[in-house]
Structures are given as structure tokens and as C-alpha cells.
Amino acid sequence: MAFTAFSSSTAATEPVVRRKSRAALFLLLPGIFYLILFFVTPLISLVITSLQAPDPLVFGRFVNALNWQNYAAVIELYGEQSVRSAGYAALATLFALLIGFPLAYFIGITLRPYPLLQSLALVLVIAPFFISFLLRTLAWKQIFSTEGPVSGILSSLGVLGPGQAITGTAFSVIFGLTYNFIPFMTLPIYATLASLDLRLLEAGNDLYGSPATTFRTVTLPLSTAGVLAGTLLTFIPAAGDYINASREFLGSADTTMIGNVIETNFLVLQNFPAAASLSLLLMAAILVLVALYVKRSGTEDLL
Amino acid sequence: MKGFGRYGIWVFSAMAFVFLLIPIVYTVAFSFNDARRTNIIWRGFTLDNWFGVCDSQNVCAAFGNSVLIGVVATVLATTLGTMIALALVRYRFRFRNATTLLIFLPMATPEVVLGAGLAAQFLQAGVPKGLATIILAHTLFCISFVVVTVRSRVAGLDPALEEAGRDLYGSPQQVFWRITFPMLLPGIVAAALLSFALSFDDFIITNFNRGAEVTFPSYVYTAAARGIPAEANVIASAVFFLAIALVLIAQLTAAARRRQLARAG
Amino acid sequence: MTNHDVPQGGFAEAGADLELVGLTKRFPGFTAVEELDLTIPAGSFFALLGPSGCGKTTTLRLIAGLEEPTAGRILIGGKDVTTTKAYQRPVNTVFQSYALFPHMSILDNVAFGLKRRGIKNAEALAHEALALVELDHVGRRKPTQLSGGQQQRVALARAIVNRPALLLLDEPLGALDLKLRRQMQIELKDIQDEVGLTFLHVTHDQEEAMTMADTVAVMNKGRIEQMGPPQELYELPRTSFVAKFLGQSNLFSGEVTSVSRAAMVIDAAGTKIEVPLARAQRHTGHITVGVRPEKVSLHGAAPEASAGRNVMGPGRITDVSFSGVSTQYEVTVPVFGALTVFAQNTSISSMHRDGDEVWLSWAVDHAFGLADDADSAGSPRFDADFDTSMIAVQSRKNLEAELEGA
């Protein structure tokens, strides 16, 4: 899917003949066992926790039950944050696409005659990953802070009212999300465009397609796989993100996302059932998206 | 606007690259700031932060933890993940679709869910949170990425090479260790590096499962409220430069090798 | 959205003349096409033949508009199209790799050019074109679901449906197996006759060029060495490159010793060879003459000298290769070395055997005289604009060649 951009080799073009052997079990079992122990069981744990009811005897403790009301309560309480999370994530994905697609086109097609420049451009795209995610977000917070240069310029231009801040707004949260996920959007699209046969574009030109038309009728349809992968890779983590929206970074009390809610419930309020049910609802929503993707492309393409 | 089409994309991309680099430049610049408590306003240039990075504050301890966790988790994840990747590509087995889904899901699960889930499980199992739980958590989400990276490398191997090995009297173990493994090594190394990077930079899952332990990202998060010390910027910048240097060296040697092959032809 | 630079309906220049004037294309480090002058009459099937690297594909791309010339002009139907872009030129290409759009159905592929030009009944015309190549029944499939031969025919239909002034074919039959290739050669020629378009076919397969084309141009190192109907090129080559690239030749060099009214005689290492003046490019000095292997007869005993025949021998047969229709003999003659003779297998058993002593003879009228010397054919045509490492590689290659030749 998306990660061929990270590895330096291309996938085989001939179908691989697979053997049937005991060795497969030996190779698979340790890893699969680990995944089951630390991924599947925690999910089951979450389910159990989400159905717990408050212990009638001890305040702050919970006992196992079938308390389905947890889900209803949580949806009612945090409906607004959920919608907001989806909205922020969708906008961030859109902006990341608007920036990431031309960038991927530039690296994968325009720079194809210059392999060294291409490699360097890829390094520049991944470079932000090498600085801690938190520090990147913090840098934007300080650049946008009321003492910073951007605020000053916008105030003098009259765009920003007195006492108005950039940080703590929907704008800054979406800005932060978009920035952090540009590489996630760009790399899968790059991977698809890099293997685009340029002769197809020549054929388009040969058959009376202007550069714009050829892009629309040939390049764009052939990059759908990359765009889809990039969208998934961006939207899913963005929906569950809580760093950008938290008060210490680019958010405020007005921009709480579902991730913040889950974190607060779990670590601060210690309301484990609420946190668990919210997590599962988020997980369910995402699984729906993934299921749509799998339906379109099949499971072989996932990895 | 005739030339716009051709040059427009160069201009746009240049601006995009600059945009991507702004926080990096900011972070590196402020590592040289003569800050006192809070590293928010530029006071003056100094190298003190770089030289005395481990003096005060507990940055270095946090950094050390992160490195330790990263190394252990990487070793575990790379081993388990490589084995899975080999099995996926080379062998037929039942429940292939289910296995693929199981490997893919951790990548698609939001970190809050993974973090909360693991924390809930540790809670239920009565396991105290600490370094061990962090390592277990990191290994989990790294396995999937290792599988993806190594798998594409395995799929790209020419089966004729191993067949030649068997034809020349190599036993299965010899063929694997002398032919397959060395050819897979670049992919495995890439997967290990990716895994380490993911572990080192992880905050959300760590936060749910660390108890009282401090990793570098959790240090930064906690310090964010009152102001991050410049030493944290120093460490982050140092890691950045090291990583960039490694990547650039790898790219340049690959390019040089390509040019060498082209000339010899 | 339609492309308004291209007229709807037919092209005014349909089946038009193509003219190249002084066409030159330089890449950093070498020159691909040098001062090319060429006129292809409307409605003809023209083949551009040459070894790989001779510049024929570059010429094709220049005509299609996929490359820009360094110098020179391209005229289609008298109109200068040198500065127009590929999507504005009334030229279509059948690509070597077919370049069918994988995300579109076959029908959409064929209709693509028509839709870009805003032609109203594009789909109906596309069906017609597919029917022409007998693939109308696969219109809904995707390119990956067709065989190589079928893809090739779709690529052809996609180009032809636009009735361009000029149809360019870039080694389109290269990926097909022998039987399919032969079939497609005939089909292509038939279609060209039927549709009446000007075809420019680029290939390195000389048999293909000779079978299909009305006119063949042999290209070497960026220039056209000789151009004309296939038979003329084959029977009367003008340069040693054409003599050796198109079919095989036996070449002899010598001084002209006498010239009569209709013929001249050269002395090639003691043997006298007569060549008609009309079939020789040069009549004085040191020249190279030749004869095609199938024109040479083998004799078990020294034949009587007769007017109108050249005789050579004795020589010894050093190799016999049976190839179905004919047998190829290699005859080693003192001084001249190995000569090639093709004898048609009119009987079932081989006529001569390895080691037999034989004499060769051929009609004087079958000999031809070349414009250049076989020896000088290896000298470089262009100044070497290589960088130092390339010079080193070149010198090493020259040295090795020298050592091998010694």
C-alpha cells in the first residue's frame, strides 16, 4: 500500500509461487501470538471495560456488568466533540491532499529525469519526521502565539482583532493537523506516480490531449490508488489525534476532539468505562472506512 | 502566463518544502537560545545548551529511556515482523486473509484506542505500568510496520538466486543464511530504522502505559505547560541531524553506485 | 472539454506529404539525427530502417512532436509544424509498448483521440475502427485482459480512427512471435491500402521493411544512406553499410584496370571482376564491388570462361547451414577469405559437402559497385564529444578490437 515508498526495492512483477510447509507455522506463530496477546486481547479488554458499571460500594471503582447505557451516555455527552473530530480530520485531509498531490507529482514525475534531486526531495519530505512530533507542533504554537511575529503582522494588518489569538482556534488545530500529515498524504501518492509509465502521457499528447486534459483523463485516474491510501493514512490518525487540539499545544477548551475526551476520561477522570466505550465507537467508525477500502481493493493490497 | 505551467510546479514545491521545514528551523534555532526557564522568546545566541545538555533538567535521563526502549522494542519487532513477512510471501496457509487483516489493523487503529486498550488490559491483569509495559506496547505497533517494509523486499527477491543456491548443493539453512538473508538485510535494516523512529517519537501510546517512567516525548509534553527547556531542543536537533546525515549518506552512496554501474557498462 | 487547436472532422492534410528539411537533434554527448532531408509522398508506406542507435526512433519522435529539434523544419502537407506541440499535430503514433490506457476500456481507448477533438459520433467511429482490426467484440474489456497481438491491433485502431495526415509506427511488431508478426505485416499493408493513409514505419528488421514498404530508407548514425523501393535498395546498394545491413553481400576491393563502353573491370588480388557501368557508383581508382550470395553458383569443377560471367576459385567449403528453403554455404577462397553463397534447395539432399573444392561464378549483370570503400566504413562520422571516462572506455574498446583483429 503506502509503505513501498519507504523501502528501496520494487515489488516482483511475476506472480510468486507459494509453497505449503510446516515452516510457515513456525515463522508465523510467534508474531501472530504476540499480536493476539497484545492487540486482540486489549480490544476484548476494552469491550469488557466499556460495559462495566460503577461499583455500588466503592466510589471510583467499577465492576463487570452489561451496562449498555455507557454507550448511549457517551454519545449524548460527547456528540459534539465527535462531529468536530470528524470535521477537523476531514478538512485536514482535504488540505493535505491539496498540498500533497502537487508535491507528489513534482517528485514522482517532474523530477524523474533527475534521480539525485528526487532522492533529496524525498528526504526533505520525510525530514519533519525526524524532529519530535511534539516539538514540531510546539514550534507552530510559538510561531502563532500572541507574542510571535505572525500575530504581530496580522494585527497591524487589521485581520486580527485586539486580544484575538490565532492559537486555540479551529484554524490553528486544523493547521497543525494538516502540517503533521502532509508526508502521510504525499508518500503514497508519490509511490503510485513514481511508477506511472510516462509513455502513457506521451500517448495522451499524441492523441490530441492538451497537458491539462491528459492530466485529467490519464494521470488522475491512474493515481487513485495512491490518493485513497493517503487519505486513509491521514484521516484515521487525524480523527483520533489529541495533541494538536490540546490546550498546551494548538487548541483550547473550544477545540476538544474525541482523542482529548478519551484521554481525559482515562487518565484524569479515571472513568474507564466511558473512555473504553468512546474508544470502541471511534474504532468502529474507522473500521467502516477500512471495510469500504478493502471492498474496493481486496486484502492483498492492504500491506 | 505561458511559462507558468512548467515553472509553477517548481515554485509551488519550493514553497511547500520551505513550509515543511519551518518548525525544524525554529526548533534548531531555539536550541541556541539563551533561555532561562521558558524557551519562548529569543534572548540571545549561546552554545551553553549544547555543551551542558545533561547538566540540569532531566532531559538526558528521559532521552536514555527512549533509546533503551527503542532498541529493545526494535529488536523484538524486527525479529517477529521479519518472520511473519517471510511466511506471508513464501508460503501458503489457511486464514491468509484473517492474518493479513490482523497485521494491518494495528496500523489503522487510532493511537488513543491502542493506548487505552493496552492500559485497560494491564490494569485488569494487575501488571504495574513501567518500562516493561512501554516496551511491550511499542513492540506491538512496530510489528505491523516491519512486516510491511520487509514484505515488499521479500516479494522483490529473484527466486532464481535461491534456486541457484540449491542447484549448487546448498542446504536449506545455508541457502537462507548465505543467500536470502544477506539480500533481505537492506529491507530489514530499513524496517528496524523505521521501527526505532516510531518508538522513539511515540507519545500517545506511551502516555497511557508508562506509569511514572519518563520518555523523551512524555518529558516534552509535561514540560510544555510551563515551557520546554532549550536542552530538549538540543536533543531533538541532535537526533534530527544524525538521522538526516544517515539518510543522506545512504542516498548518496546509492546514487554513486548507480553511476558507477552505468559507467562500467 | 475539447482540444480546439485541432480541427473537428477530417484533417485537411489527410494522407499528406511529409517533408523534413535539415532536421537535426543533438543530445548532450552525441548527435542523434544530423541534417536529415526526407520527403515522403502522400499515401505511401514508408519504412525507416536501421540498426539500434541510428536515430530512426528519434526521427519518429521529432515528427510526432514528442521531441523538439535542435535545428531544421518539419512540414506536413506543405504546412510548417516544427513549432506545434504533439497534441496539435495531425500525426498519430503506434507505440512500441502500445501504451494503451490501463484504466479505460478498449472502446474508450480507441475513442480517446476523437473525444479530445470534439467529434460527435466518437463511439460509432471507434466501433468501426475496432471492426477493421476484428476486435469489436472485446470493446468492453480492459487492455490487461488482451493478448499481445490483440493489444497491438487496438493500438493500431486507436491511431487509425483519427485518420491522421501521417501515421507513425515505432517497431510495433517487435514483441510478437514470428507467425503473428508475419500475419500482422500482411494485415498492416492491407489496412494501409484500404484506408489510404501515409504510414511511416520504423524498424530494425530488414525483412519486415522490404515486405511492407513502398519505399525504404536505410539510416545509419543519424543520416540516410540510401532510399528507394525495396528491390532497388537490395539489388543495387550504393554504400557498403547498405550492402551489409540489408541482406548479405560478398565484397571485393580492387583497382579499376579497364573501362569499356558498358562495363569496367577491376583487379581484385589477381582475380578479374567485371561490373556494368550502370551499376557502379564510381568508375575510377580503388573501388569495392559486390554480389549477393543467392546470385552466386557453385561448381564442382572449374567452369569454362564465358562472356558475361565472373569466375572465382578454387575455394573450399568450410560450413554448410541448412535453413529449409535454401542452404547457406561458407566458401573460403584464398586472399578473400570467407564468402557466402545461398543455394536454393531444389533437390532433397545437400548438393555440396563440407570440405568440397568448388568454384564460384555469377553473372556480370548481378554485380554492383559501391560508392565507398569497405575499409573506410568504420571511421567515425561525428567528432567525439565524450567526457574523459567515455574516451577511456572507447580507447579500451578500440584496443581490444585491434587485438582481436590481429
In words, what does this structure look like?
The complex is a heterotrimer of chains A (303), B (265) and C (406). By secondary structure, chain A is an all-alpha fold. Chain A has helices spanning 22-50, 69-110, 115-126, 133-144, 149-157, 170-194, 198-206, 211-222, 224-240, 258-268, 272-297; strands spanning 19-20, 53-54, 62-63. Chain A has a single domain (42-297), classed as MetI-like fold (Orthogonal Bundle). In chain A, strand 2 and strand 3 form a beta hairpin. The longest helix of chain A is centred in the N-terminal third of the chain and has 42 residues, at 69-110. With 265 residues, chain B is mainly alpha-helical. Chain B has a domain at 58-228: MetI-like (MetI-like fold, Orthogonal Bundle). In chain B, helix 3 (59-90) packs parallel to helix 6, helix 3 (59-90) packs antiparallel against helix 8 and helix 4 crosses helix 6. Chain C has 2 domains: 18-234, 3-Layer(aba) Sandwich (Rossmann fold); 248-373, OB fold (Dihydrolipoamide Acetyltransferase, E2P), CATH 2.40.50. Mean pLDDT of chain C is 86; it is low at 376-381 and 383-387. The A-C interface holds A 197, 199-200, 202-214, 216-218, 221-222 and C 1, 3, 5-6, 64-66, 85-88, 91-93, 95, 97, 99-104, 112-113, 116-117, 158-159, 162. Strand 1 (19-20) of chain A pairs parallel with strand 1 (91-92) of chain B, so a sheet runs across the interface.
Task: Throw out a few tags for this protein.
heterotrimer, B: 265 residues, mainly alpha, MetI-like fold, C: 406 residues, alpha+beta, Rossmann fold, OB fold (Dihydrolipoamide Acetyltransferase, E2P), 5-stranded antiparallel beta sheet, 20 strands
- Provide the CATH architecture of the domain at 58-228 in chain B: Orthogonal Bundle
Q: Order of helices and strands of chain B, N to C? A: HHHEHHHHHHHH
- Name the average pLDDT of chain B: 85
* Poorly predicted runs of 5 or more residues of chain A: 1-15
Number of helices of chain A: 11
CATH topology of chain A: MetI-like fold
User: What CATH architecture of chain A do you see?
Assistant: Orthogonal Bundle
Q: How many strand units of chain A? A: 3
Please state the overall shape of chain B, judged from the principal axes of the Cα atoms: globular
Biggest interface and its residues per chain? A-B, 105 and 101 residues
CATH superfamily of chain A: MetI-like
Largest sheet of chain A: 2 strands, antiparallel
Low-confidence stretches of chain B: none
- Using only C-alpha atoms, the radius of gyration of chain B works out to 23 Å
Structural class of chain A: mainly alpha
Overall 3D form of chain A: globular
Q: Strand sequence of the main sheet of chain A, in spatial order?
A: 2-3
Strand content of chain B: under 5%
